[in-house]
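As agreed, record copied across for absentees:
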Amino acid sequence: MSEEDEKTAANGAARIDAAPSAPAATNIPGVVLGKDGKPCRSCTSGAAFASWSSSMKKKPAAAQAQASEMNAASIAATRKNCPPDVEQLGNSSWTLLHTIAASYPDNPSPNQKEDLRGFMRTFSRLYPCWVCAEDFQTYIQKDETKVGSRAEFGNWLCNAHNEVNRKLGKKEFDCSRWEERWRTGWKDGSCD
């Protein structure tokens, strides 16, 4: 998966080359198409998916203009009980993975090491955003999951997360502070 493909998924841009036969979705900026050519909810931001969905309902021009003026925050607020978009899925997934790292043993048994390796392989194959899944699989092939200890896995995961952050143009996290963020809480007591 190229860096451009990762940006495509993360930013919600349409992947026309992945599904050239999907006419409606390719006209809406930010909609990522699934391998079946249909819009992929898990790969598209809520705002882009809502824009595509409303355009498919053939609303009157005035209603379409009003819907297009809604910002991402207001759309997200109305989508609390809807399937997650790419941002919600990503944030929830990273929270789960970092929390697993925080609870992983300092001295894992051989079975615990294999369980974690297997989980990460499976997670990368089952991840709902196919573009993100393929990219994570490539990352794991390039830099195998480090499972020797809590510190080793936590640092490996932080580096993996930072690689995604770089591709998305986001600020990198200081990996020397991953346990403070995900396990012990900030030293200033704000998590107590």
Observations:
- Residues 86-184 form a domain with the Four Helix Bundle (Hemerythrin (Met), subunit A) fold (CATH 1.20.120.310).
- The chain has two domains: 3-78, 86-184.
- The chain has a mean pLDDT of 80.
